[in-house]
Design goal:
Number of strands: 5
CATH architecture of one domain: 2-Layer Sandwich
Helix content: 25-40%
Structural class: alpha/beta
CATH class of one domain: Alpha Beta
Strand order of the largest sheet: 3-2-1-4-5
Radius of gyration: 17 Å
Oligomer: single chain
Mean pLDDT: 90
CATH superfamily of one domain: Ribonuclease H-like superfamily/Ribonuclease H
CATH topology of one domain: Nucleotidyltransferase, domain 5
Largest sheet: 5 strands, mixed
Strand content: 15-25%
Order of helices and strands: HHHEEEHEHHEH
Low-confidence stretches: none
Number of helices: 7
Length: about 220
């Protein structure tokens, strides 16, 4: 299971969203699996994001999942030297509740679909950097990747990490950890996704932002 994302004081979560994050960690941030487990624990026909679900029901369901005696059993993960990493950030309001998503693929196989809340009141750029940082973490530590192609729709991130570095002062806390991760790779490259190109990490980041919006 990967380390839980560490947040700066500028990236807080509500107590309820933070508890969901603990449940996500048990599922290795495979967001569909974690949300499905929470939905199963909600009584009746509600779910984590269902308007009919009360905050008390959400808390009880999340508590059931987050305090499970053991995390879900997972098939041993493969080691893949080359991986494609799709990353994206999402923010409701900019600044507002923000989430990050990452999808890791090797060839035609999808290895991981990850999502998590970034903070309850942060900007979209922060979410974009968080997606790259923790996506790299997963590709390297979970799958042993040594060559990664990053597919990203944020030119701010691309220019800052691989280019002129004139646009991203607010996310500078992420720059060094990202550089450290990239330095461990044998090779890394980037591809810019235009607005009309599909990014599979987009929906995961949106769910992360929805979780960040939960509260109190």
């Amino acid at each position: 299971m990967p380390d839980r994302p560490s947040r700066s004081p500028a990236e807080p979560l509500s107590p309820l969203a933070a508890r969901v994050d603990e449940a996500l960690a048990l599922h290795s941030y495979e967001i569909e699996s974690a949300v499905a487990a929470i939905d199963d624990a909600v009584p009746g026909h509600g779910g984590l994001f269902d308007p009919r679900t009360t905050d008390d029901e959400r808390r009880a369901a999340i508590e059931d999942v987050a305090t499970a005696e053991a995390p879900p059993e997972r098939v041993p993960e493969p080691t893949v030297s080359e991986a494609t990493l799709y990353v994206d950030g999402s923010c409701h309001g900019n600044p507002g509740p923000a989430g990050a998503g990452a999808v890791i693929r090797s060839g035609e196989a999808t290895l991981a679909c990850l999502g998590w809340p970034v903070g309850s009141h942060v900007g979209n750029n922060i979410a974009e950097y968080a997606a790259l940082k923790y996506g790299l973490d997963a590709a390297i530590t979970r799958f042993g990747s040594t060559a990664v192609e990053v597919c990203c729709d944020s030119l701010t991130v691309i220019k800052d990490i691989w280019g002129d570095r004139q646009n991203a002062v607010e996310a500078s806390a992420y720059r060094k950890p990202i550089e450290n991760r990239l330095a461990t790779l044998e090779t890394h490259e980037w591809a810019h996704l235009t607005d009309d190109e599909y990014n599979p990490a987009d929906a995961l980041a949106t769910v992360g932002a929805d979780i960040a919006a939960l509260g109190p």
